[in-house]
User: Fold LPS O-antigen length regulator from Shewanella yunxiaonensis.
Amino acid sequence: MSNTISNPQDAEFAPRQFETSDEIDLRELFSVIWAGKILIIAITLVFAIGAVALALWMPNIYKSEALLAPAEEAQGGGLSALANQFGGLASLAGINLGKNGGADKTELAIEVMQSRKFTSDFIEKHHILPELMAVDKWSLSDNKISYDSELYDATTKEWVRKVKPPLQAKPSMQEAYKAFTKIFSVTSDKQSGLVTVSIEHKSPYIAKQWVDWLVTDINQVMKQRDVTEAKRSTEYLEKQIEQTNVADIRTVLYKLVEEQAKTIMFAEVRDEYIFKTVDPALVPEEKFKPKRALICVLGTLLGGMLAVFLVLVRYFVKK
Assistant:
């Protein structure tokens, strides 16, 4: 019988030989890479030059930050003690003191700083829209900034950028808010309770100035909120005192009026109402970004890997 296999070992060896023929030969890969070394070097060199050009073209960004601590009176300690002592009687009068004397005003202040309303008011109050969205570069020699002529005319102080509707030449507060959130950061350390406020900008002096303004404005805004609320509460409590004859409830109401008076007094005498400055903002001497060395290294590595991939793909397609 001519179709039978005389040696059983040949039958086991045949499929193994077929399987190994599809395996990748490392020597072959290295020989292909070596053969395409000129193309690999050329592509890698192009990417390296491009990465260097990009790193040199990107402007320096400076970061200024301030370290803040919550003010002691920002936690509503007086109302907390009052709630523990007269909470039941206050509830009879329809007044809710809360378990902790109200929400944590420090956390509230952080959320207010990140809100659209506060950001819009901050930009309009200090007239920083051109410095936010039209700065081209900053000169170290004379500490002056130049604007992008395609966006803003510094001579006439008019916006000249060309955009499609519904956008207008002058950026809206929605655009300004998006741009501001990219350079502004406020973080809170859960363990220490300290808050860090930072601004990134092409000008280190502008970054420092904006941080100072932010700290001043948030203290002023939160102070005004509490004073307005305290005055309204005082008016309401005085009306309630006139309408009740129960001695215990009148005692609670007088205590509440006293707490509102304390709130107004602390607000009037303290500039750092919510946040106390632990470490003030400074004009940074060193840039925060870009990391030019890292950009060059990553660009070169990317070019080398892409070049090797192209050489291998071209070889296997031809094969």
About this structure: Confidence is low (pLDDT under 50) at residues 11-22, 74-81, 87-96, 98-103. Residues 28-58+290-312 form one domain. The first helix runs from residue 8 to 20. The radius of gyration is 34 Å.
